[in-house]
Description:
- The longest helix is centred in the middle third of the chain and has 17 residues, at about 65-80.
- This protein is of the alpha+beta class.
- Strands 3-4-5-6-10-7 form a 6-stranded mixed sheet. The chain has a two-stranded antiparallel ribbon with strand order 1-2. Strands 8-9 form a two-stranded antiparallel sheet.
- About 35% of the residues are buried.
- Strand 3 (about 25-35) and strand 4 form a beta hairpin.
- It starts with a strand and ends with a strand.
- It is about 20% helix and about 35% strand.
- It contains 4 helices and 12 strands; from the N terminus they run βββββαβααβαβββββ.
- Helix 1 runs parallel beside helix 3 (about 115-130).
Amino acid sequence: xxxxxxxxxxxxxxxxxxxxxxxxxxxxxxxxxxxxxxxxxxxxxxxxxxxxxxxxxxxxxxxxxxxxxxxxxxxxxxxxxxxxxxxxxxxxxxxxxxxxxxxxxxxxxxxxxxxxxxxxxxxxxxxxxxxxxxxxxxxxxxxxxxxxxxxxxxxxxxxxxxxxxxxxxxxxxxxxxxxxxxxxxxxxxxxxxxxx
Length: 196
C-alpha cells in the first residue's frame, strides 16, 4: 500500500491510500488545503482522471466555514484540466435526501428521506458543475448505502459521496460501501468501479 497526505499542514485530514500496483498510473498528487487534495491518474484510451478528495466541516459548523470549504472545493475543481474526467469524492457530512426535485442529480436511492444543510451545499456544488451524486443511483440495501456508523453501532448515515460530471457518468459502473474493512474508523470504505 502507498499513501499520500498533506505533510505541510500538521492537522491534515485528507489522505489517499492506493495499492502499490496502481502507483504507476499516478500523474500528480497535490494537497491544496488540510481538507482538500487532488490526484491525477492516467487511464486507458486517452481517458485521464482528476480526483478531488475533500473533507467538509461538520453539520454544526457555521455557514462561513462551510462557504470557505466549498469555495476551495470549487477552485480546486476548476484548476483540473478540462479534458480529464473529473470525480469529487470525500466525507462531506452531507445527508442527501429523496426529494423528487433533486432526482435528476442525486438519484432516488438515498439512505435518508430529507437533505441536511451540508447536503444542500453539496447539491449546489453539483448543480454548478453539472455533476451527479453517483452514490445515490444504485438500488442497494440500506446496509450497503451506509458510509458512517456511530460508535455505539445504532446510528447509520450516508455522508461520504462520489460525484462525477454528468457527461462522464458512463465511466462509472458502480459505487457502494464496504462494511468489512478493518480501518480503525467509524467510516466505511466507499468503493467505485471505473471504466479504465
